[in-house]
Amino acid sequence: MNSIITRSTTTATSLPPELWLNILPHIPYSPLTLTTLRLISHRFNTLITRHETSLLKDIKLHSVSASTLQLYPGLALDSYKTLATVHARQETLEDVARKWPDIVSTSNRESDGEGTLHWLKGRYEPLFTAGLLLLCRLQDAAREPPRPDTNTDTNTDTNTPPSGSRSHAAQIALLHSLPATSLACLLFVCLASVKILRVHGPEPVRGVGAKGMWG
């Protein structure tokens, strides 16, 4: 059996790189799959790394729908890292939708009035999802590209704010640009998450963060 696997691996890695560049985008994408492909051989890792731009373009075409891209208008899908971020966010949204019936139907009678989540049923699930997507937009607003450094002496540039300040300013600007309905969704998802935390403990709230929703 081991000899068969070795021969199969050897045959696969001996194919011309041009052929693999056509094959790889058709393999259903996930960050784990991409990591596994990198680990096949040093040649595979080099191929995937060196041709990131062209492979990313084709992977987006085959594995990321246009409707998914529209959910994150502030995220430039220009690297494997941001592609993994989109994948993690979509998994989280699907996980929330799957767990939502259990979240709103259970209660904790020992939580002093915080034990019921039945009020979250029905129309509030779309509001919760909209709030999550707006939180993603806030995260993406902080991903400012670095400013071009036109001054070789960095010590003389005392007017340039630190990157953290620029990121915070971008998020504040986004908040000021949002309509009242969007701000209400943001407030709702924060309040609802606190209620869910009080009833269910760290799950499923912790699971949302663990999946890299804000990665």
From TrEMBL:
InterPro entries: F-box-like_dom_sf, F-box_dom. This is F-box domain-containing protein. Residues 143-166 are annotated as: Disordered. Residues 149-162 have a biased composition (Low complexity). It comes from Friedmanniomyces simplex. PROSITE patterns: FBOX (PS50181). Residues 9-59 form the F-box domain. The lineage of its organism: Eukaryota, Fungi, Dikarya, Ascomycota, Pezizomycotina.
